[in-house]
Amino acid sequence: MAGIAVLGSGAGTNFEALWEEFREEVVLVISDRRDAGVLEKARERGVRVLVEEGRDFGTQILPHLEGVDLICLAGFMKLVREPLLGAFRGRILNIHPSLLPDFPGLRAWEQALEAGATRSGCTVHLVDSGIDTGEVIWQAEVPIFKGDTPARLHARIQVEERRIYPRAVRAILDKKRAPK
Q1: pLDDT digit string (tens) for 143-179?
Q2: CB–CB of 41/31 below 8 Å?
Q3: Is the pTM higher than 0.85?
Q4: Which of 131, 157, 15 is nearest to 72 (CA)?
Q5: Which residue segments constitute the domains of the chain, with CATH numbers given?
Q6: pLDDT by residue (tens digit) across 125-147?
Q7: 179 preceded by a cis bond (ω within 30 of 0)
Q8: Distance (Å, rounded) from C-alpha 14 to C-alpha 93?
Q9: Do 64 and 88 contact (CB within 8 A), yes or no?
Q10: CA-to-CA distance for 167 and 31, rounded, in angstroms?
Q11: Is 96 annotated as catalytic?
Q12: Average of pLDDT values for 37-60?
């Protein structure tokens, strides 16, 4: 059984999707915001939580990650840097609301609408030192309809995020477990 830590800054909808698939494996939820909804959702499910609002986030949380095999960013709004990145190289996943490499960074669904794109979606990728530049693991496409608002597009993307994130995590864990 793998130990999974979920890092989140927001409401926790992707945490819920991961929890549904990996109840036994999700051992820790960490947030950089005391008021993050993900913390309450984790507490309700009996998952250990940690809040670290300091500037040196990675260094501060590293000692709490003993027994963790995989880190899943779920609406986490801080950049992951060293030493966390090095300690978990190839074992940190992120879900991003666009079809990377298109529209990296914040509010990607708004970027897609402003650019006049006809499609968007979401991407699960490995985290590296760039902003949404790591190896793509899984993607799901969402059409952009004429007259779409940012809120409607974002809601459709979130449905796909909750669908593909657990699948991508399962694929990573199964690959890790496969004999060499």
Answers
A1: 999 999 999 999 999 999 999 999 999 999 988 655 5
A2: no
A3: yes
A4: 15
A5: 4-96+123-140+164-177 (3.40.50.170)
A6: 999 999 999 999 999 999 999 99
A7: no
A8: 12
A9: no
A10: 23
A11: yes
A12: 95
CB atoms inside a 10 Å sphere around CB 49: 16
> Catalytic one among 64, 96, 125, 154?
96
DSSP assignment of the chain, as one string?
A: ---EEEE-SS--HHHHHHHHH-TTTEEEEEES-TT-HHHHHHHHTT-EEEE--SS-HHHHHGGGGTT--EEEESS--S---TTHHHHTTT-EEEEESS-TTSS-STTHHHHHHHTT-SEEEEEEEE--SSSS-SPEEEEEEEEPPTT--HHHHHHHHHHHHHHHHHHHHHHHHHHHHS--
Structure tokens at 158: 């979130």
